[in-house]
Design a protein that fits this description.
The protein is an alpha/beta fold. It is built from 11 helices and 6 strands. A 6-stranded mixed sheet has the order 1-6-5-2-4-3. Helix 1 runs parallel beside helix 10 and helix 2 packs across helix 10. The longest helix is centred in the first third of the chain and has 25 residues. The mean pLDDT is 93.
């Protein structure tokens, strides 16, 4: 039986993974119960992460349009303290961002130690949309652009290597990266896009670009495969999440986030000698206060 989500690369090919899977949950009620329990535990672990301030966690969400990235943020992270949590969405680079290296705009948005950050899309777009639309490369002031950008694997291997080195460097410094791809089927995407069109309260989310990018579906799937194979590493593996059923994708991701936080062996810092003396004095003051 094929697994529902994996650390990639593996013996299972990305295109063979089941986007409609419930990931072993027997009912919606079971998944909801697990999700709520995980949210509470993530909130508790975030509090220790913030106090400890030796680690940071970056969550990267990638996926085709309407795959549920916004819903993951809303429903999985709803219990965290905003003081130690930040979200950044990345669209088309600005003129300033085009003049910097392709990692620059994401690098400067990395969460600080003690924080959890989410990238809704990320520097991986520079190996996906920039490959589907190579005309974007001409805006990046690069010293060299291949004649046939879509097929010149040496160029993309260079970017994959840069990403792997960046992620290893961040991991070495206590910045841990969880990478999720929301694996939605083309049929399910169509249903969700039609809902945005036909249901007026959802109209604000619709962009015609979603339709034009859908025409490149097969290209994106091929380039995602290249990306997973090249950038899934021991310290930052890719998690391919079945995303046709939103509840189950949210529950799976909550489990992986919680497991990662628990693996960091976080502890509340011990009070220093000076702090302990201050605590004794404060208690004495309050106990004797008139």
């Amino acid at each position: 039986m094929k697994r529902d989500y994996i650390y990639y690369p593996d013996n299972t090919k990305f295109k063979e993974l089941k986007s409609e899977s419930t990931a072993g949950f027997k009912s919606k009620e079971q998944a909801i119960s697990v999700l709520e329990e995980n949210k509470q535990k993530i909130s508790e672990m975030q509090d220790i992460l913030y106090a400890d301030s030796k680690h940071a966690l970056l969550i990267i969400l990638q996926g085709m349009d309407a795959s549920g990235k916004d819903g993951i943020i809303k429903h999985v992270m709803s219990g965290v303290n905003p003081q130690g949590f930040q979200i950044k969405s990345f669209g088309t680079p600005s003129p300033e961002e085009f003049k910097h290296d392709f990692l620059w705009r994401c690098n400067k948005e990395m969460p600080e130690r003690g924080h959890i950050g989410i990238f809704n899309r990320s520097y991986y777009e520079e190996t996906l949309i920039a490959r589907v639309h190579p005309e974007l490369l001409s805006k990046q002031f690069l010293p060299f652009i291949p004649e046939n950008p879509k097929k010149d694997m040496e160029f993309w291997k260079m970017r994959f290597t840069d990403i792997n080195n960046f992620e290893k460097y961040m991991n070495n410094n206590g910045f841990h990266i969880l990478k999720f791809y929301l694996n939605i089927s083309k049929e399910e995407q169509k249903k969700r896009l039609l809902k945005r069109i036909n249901y007026s309260p959802k109209n604000w989310k619709f962009k015609f670009d979603d339709i034009s990018e859908r025409q490149h579906w097969n290209e994106y799937m091929s380039y995602y495969e290249d990306m997973f194979t090249a950038t899934s590493t021991d310290n930052a593996p890719w998690h391919i999440i079945p995303a046709d059923k939103k509840l189950y994708s949210r529950t799976i991701i909550s489990q992986i986030i919680l497991k990662k936080l628990e693996s960091l062996n976080l502890k509340y810092p011990e009070a220093s000698y000076k702090q302990k003396r201050g605590i004794i004095e404060a208690r004495h003051f309050l106990d004797n206060e008139k």
